[in-house]
Amino acid sequence: MPQRHSKNNNDLAFFTYDEKKKLGYGTQRERLGKDSIKPFDSCCLCLKPFIDPLCCQKGHVFCKDCILECLLSQKKDIQRKLAAHATQQKQEKEEDKEKMQLQKAREIDAFDQQNHGAVPQ
Questions:
Q1: pTM, to two decimals
Q2: Which residues neighbour 60 within 8 Å (Cβ) at sequence distance 6 or greater?
Q3: Rounded CA gap, 19 and 13, in Å?
Q4: Contact 26, 17 (CB under 8 A)
């Protein structure tokens, strides 16, 4: 019994019409309203008309105040995270030192008990 080659062939580099139809490819389920599309002359951060516009290398346009404020807040956030990471590493080092001191104290106590335990009092 021959197979239906056109609908069962999956080794193509592209989707067939039947596969697209099964996936719902290209069907429009809902429309985008005017509120969901940003006007061309508005800032990408504040969504208001430009005040002293600046453009990045990728072509995104921002207000000068908005982008400077965003960059400063990102810089402060990075510094805060770095400080938290440094304090966490410092605490881990202190905990490791305490563990090593406890381990040495246990070894010394075990050695003393072993040596003094053999001598009668």
A1: 0.52
A2: 44
A3: 12
A4: no
Question: For 37-106, what is the HEC assignment?
Answer: CCCCCECCCCCCECCCEEECCCCCEEEHHHHHHHHHHHHHHHHHHHHHHHHHHHHHHHHHHHHHHHHHHH
User: In angstroms, rounded to a whole number, what is the distance separating the alpha carbons of residues 52 and 66?
Assistant: 10
Tokens representing residue 72 in the block: 């400063």
The Cα 118–Cα 111 span in angstroms is 11
Beta bridge partners of 62: 54
pLDDT digits (tens, 9 = 90+) for 60-119: 889 999 999 999 999 999 999 999 999 999 999 999 999 999 999 999 999 888 888 655
Structure tokens at 52: 């002293």
| Residue 16: count of CB within 10 angstroms of its CB | 14
